[in-house]
Amino acid sequence: MKKRILIVLLTVLSVININCKESISEEEKLKKTAEISKISARLYGGPLVDMLFMTMHDKGVKNAVEYCGGYATEYTKKTVPKIEQRMIQDFNIKSLDVRRTALKLRNPGNKPSETEEKVLLEWEEKYKKNEEINPAFFNDNGIYKGMLPIKMTSPDCLNCHGSEERRHKEAYAKIKELFPEDKAVDYELNDIRGAILVKIEF
């Protein structure tokens, strides 16, 4: 009898949980997308950027590139999934994926979708017109996405992403070994490098 009651209760709770998820309005989902995206971007990008600049200043630009190929890769593979899982639990969502994307790629695996590319191109147009560039949050066929701009805010960024004259030659030689088809160069200070992309399924 007790077992039967427990089964009924679990079934009811499951139905309530499903209904609660389905009852979230579009406006609430977009608001939640913005909140989750901003937190995810800080957790994803903050430690990587801090460690990169620390390594660059303490051990030199070339060692910073090796850091990107080592620690940053490990962080992305091991730590980011833990962050995503915690966010899934805390916000009661089905899935979360955090990555980077851009128009000019270093890692071919970060290629934007058609809708993501459209946002990046809109940012480029606004940047040329000296207009304000804001994060984008939208529903892309049932997958809610947040795109937060990555800007070239430090001259140090140009060591690996600047013009041929500005790039650090030894460091960029190492980058070409890691990414032979690299296109993420010829940027200037304050240019839009790309976006932190957050994908959410409610």
Give a structural overview.
It is built from seven helices and four strands; from the N terminus they run H-H-H-H-E-H-E-E-H-H-E. Helix 3 packs parallel to helix 7 (169-178). The protein is globular. It starts with a helix and ends with a strand. It has a four-stranded antiparallel sheet with strand order 1-4-3-2. By secondary structure, the chain is α+β, with helices and mostly antiparallel strands.
Could you outline the blueprint of secondary structure elements for this entry?
Layout: H1 2-22, H2 26-59, H3 61-69, H4 71-91, E1 95-101, H5 114-128, E2 136-140, E3 143-151, H6 158-161, H7 169-178, E4 192-201
Antiparallel strand pairs: 1-4, 2-3, 3-4
Helix pairs in contact: 2-3, 2-4, 3-7
Summarize the structure.
The chain is α+β, with helices and mostly antiparallel strands and about 200 residues long. About 55% of the residues lie in helices and about 15% in strands.
Give me the number of helical elements: 7
What general outline do the C-alpha atoms trace? Answer: globular
Low-confidence stretches: 1-21
SSE string, helices as H and strands as E: HHHHEHEEHHE
The structure class reads alpha+beta
What's the gyration radius in Å? 21 Å
Which percent range fits the helix content? Answer: 55-70%
Main beta sheet strand tally, sense and closure? 4 strands, antiparallel
Q: What is the straight-line distance between the termini?
A: 35 Å
Strand content: 15-25%
Question: What is the total domain count?
Answer: 1
Strand order of the largest sheet: 1-4-3-2
Mean pLDDT: 84
Please give the number of β-strands. 4
